[in-house]
Amino acid sequence: MHELLRQYAAERLADDPADERATRARHAAHYAALLPGPAEGPAGGGLDLDAEVENLRAATDWLVAHADPARLDAHLGRLCPLYRRKGWFREARAVLTAALAREPLPVLERARWHRLLGEACIQLGEMGPAREHLERTLSLLDSPVPASTPGWLEVLASQWLQRRLRRLGPGAPVERQEDRRARAQERAAVCWQLDETYYMLEEPLPMVPIALWGLNQAERSGRLDLVARSQAGLGMTVGTAGLHRLADRHVRAAVIAAERTGDPVTVLWTQVVGSLVWLAVGHWAPLDAGLGRALAAGADAGLQRLADQAVLLGGIARYLTGRFDEAAAMGADARAAGRERRDPMVHLWGLLVLTESRLRTDPADPAIAGWLEEARPLQAAGVSRIDVVRARILEARFHLAAGRPADAWRATRAAADLAGRQSSFAVYTLEAHAGIPEVCLALAEQGVPGLAMAELRATMATGLRRLRRYARTVPVAHPRALTCLGWSRWLDGRHGAARRAWARAIREAERLAMPYELARAHDELGRHLAVGERATLGLDRAGHLERARSTFETLGCQADLAAIDRVERETGVEHKAR
Asked: Of 49, 59, 165, 399, which alpha carbon lies 20 to 30 A from 274's?
């Protein structure tokens, strides 16, 4: 219909307010009925969204303004999955905000709409507002989150005790009353997302209590999908405390349950959480095997952000196992998706994985400067602190590789100030933790004139302590921590201790199947052996350098190969292949 004709028709309709109200009510009812129901899936319903999107928006606006809460709640319950499939999280946020502005509203509907709004904020990467809405949901359900450490400890104790007592009986009972079951379902649906929010905001205190309570509520709701998500969240949480066997047991059980449900959200979520648990300990096989299945399950459900998270964690796994080209491609895909959806966190993560991978293979690539420039405004868009540290240390590595030590030091100092004294528990942040002492050690070894060596060494020592604390709960950090420790011991003149640390780094990297870290440890040990001297592993300088060279060649690490060539020329070591 031509716009002028549409306006004229609307004016004529408005001449009779009763007729207009009845007509708009029929219009809203017609288009609301075309939305797929919960049991129909994405292909259900009779709505051609591309052709009818404006009609759907008009119907939604009318329902938000005029429908009774129960009818509006049913409409939003069908509409939000559609928004999720299309990635229209900003529109979902606007609709839900308008719905929550209505007064009065029943408690359960208000709580559910706050939860849906919190979900939209998570998908937009807005973790602070997401936390506010999710916590508001629990308050409306008479379960406010504690405001103090003793309060959280009390929740932890009570939920742990409930689970211990249930072992004596048949299991957690499902609520018999429909109202109580609905409230348990809402609480469980909030808790697994609130647990993720606390994780991304780096707030460890509430994670275990909220995960345990969420699992108890999921069992009471009788929903297998919520039980699987909650159990996966509990596994992720105990993994941050270094309880990796317990975490793996919970996650594997959740993955099996998720596959039984067939629910794409549950399948993708358990893959994301499983990736975090397996990434920490170097269980690469289940991480790689599950990614394809999870992405296939979520392909038709429009779960863009969950899919991006799964891809990015898969990219980090490939980066840590030396598959740099694959990691760079996955980072580039996430960068494009995050930029298209205006999701600063996914956009930044994609850039970080892409840049980290390219710095390994070709640190002189001119595209790196553009990626780092693209990442700068994203660092002020509400992303987590540790991701900003990752970005700053990448700038430092880029400057160091380009022969700009003063710029590398400035970027490293900024990263160290942001990092603070405590380590993060996020398993995907190894580069942030290892990068600070590594750049400092490289600068100290070079002896760059004009740098404040006392401050440099203090930053290096603090960074090394932070890295070693991080490695206590994240085993994949062990090889890097030992390599840095050996480097530090060598600069302090403790040569025997340095060689022992590098030998341990080799053994750890072999155990964890991390080829780049293995090559780096061989490189450091080889270049610091005297001619004719053998290390505890039985190899001399030439043997260690040869192993480093062959691995770097396989991985495509040109700068590392060039560094070995320089060492061999300076020391007169003959490369066996020549």
From this structure: 165
pTM score: 0.85
Q: Of the spans 165-169, 382-386, 542-546, which averages the highest pLDDT?
A: 542-546
> In this predicted model, what pLDDT tens digit does every residue of 197-223 receive, in sequence order?
998 888 888 999 999 999 989 999 999
Distance between CA atoms of 320 and 524, rounded to whole angstroms?
Answer: 19
What is the rounded distance in angstroms from the CA atom of residue 563 to the CA atom of residue 395? 20
pLDDT tens-digit profile of 103-136?
A: 899 999 999 999 999 999 988 878 899 999 999 9
Can you point out the beta strands (E) in 129-248? Answer: none
What whole-number distance in Å separates Cα of residue 485 and Cα of residue 423?
17
Exposed/middle/buried for 153, CB within 10 Å: 0-12, 13-18, 19+?
middle
> Which one, of 465, 470, 528, lies nearest residue 498 by Cα?
528
* 534 backbone dihedrals φ, ψ, rounded to 5°: -120, 145
Sign of the C-alpha dihedral, residues 444, 450, 451, 453? positive
Give the percent of the chain with pLDDT over 70: 94
Listed in sequence order, the residues at least 6 apart from 361 whose beta carbon sits closer than 8 Å to its beta carbon are 324, 325, 328, 555, 556, 557, 558
Distance separating alpha carbons of residues 467 and 484, to the nearest angstrom: 9
Assigned token pair, 190 = 């909030």
Kindly report whether the peptide bond that precedes residue 479 is cis, defined as omega within 30 degrees of 0. Answer: no
Residues 6 or more apart whose Cβ sits within 8 Å of residue 412: 392, 393, 396, 435, 436, 439, 440, 443, 459
Q: Where are the domains of the chain?
A: 14-105, 303-380, 384-473, 479-571
Which tops the pLDDT comparison, 195 or 575?
195
* Residues 6 or more apart in contact with residue 124 via CB below 8 angstroms: 89, 90, 93, 342, 343
Average confidence score pLDDT of the chain: 89
Q: Reduced to 3 states, what is the DSSP secondary structure of residue 101?
A: coil
pLDDT band of 40, cuts 50, 70, 90: low
* CB-CB neighbours of 545 under 10 Å: 25
